[in-house]
Amino acid sequence: MNQDELLRQLYDFTLVGNAPEVLSLTNQGLAMGLGPEMLLYEALIPSLEEVGARFERGDFFVPEMLIAGRAMAGALEVLRPLLAETGAEPIGKIVMGTVKGDVHDIGKNLVNIMFEGAGFEVIDLGVQVSPEKFIDAIKEHKPDIVGFSAFLTTTMPMFKANINALQKAGMREQVIIMVGGAPVTQEYADVVGADGYASDASAAVVRAKELLSQRRALARA
Question: In terms of CB atoms within 10 Å, which end of the chain has fewer, N or C?
Fold first, then answer.
């Protein structure tokens, strides 16, 4: 198998979520001397972007996104330390967590995989994350973006509680705040004072990149 064939197969198997083949092809590619960046940026990321595009069109649904994401996550386990060795810079850093009172994490985990696949460094705080834990994570990791996830309507008010806590700590302006989850809407995100909202994992990555480029453009101005 030559380089082009391997990249094409890696793209195709990621698209259908065949995790064993994705892992095998990732290792084969490395053995052939292909760099981790080439595997990531010429096969894995384009494939996950296509998954997102098919989801937007209604051709794929959440299960297809999940299995493709999991297939890519397996490859990322192999590639992540190699990318760190090459000094490949992430395009941004995001701290993510499901808010206090909520233990749902399937949506959050899918978003995390999509972010990692797009080249972000993701710090996942898990579920039931208190405002204090978010604040500690911001101090420690200095992220560009903080993501609050909620699946229950009863825990959505924690978005505002978290934002208030950040304001009180003098940290609100340091980060872009994004919110999401099944019951969350753009209107609710606006009411609580979040910077961004996305209805699904692929849209979250697009929105995060937009917000990040806007912030960096303002910083340069």
Answer: C
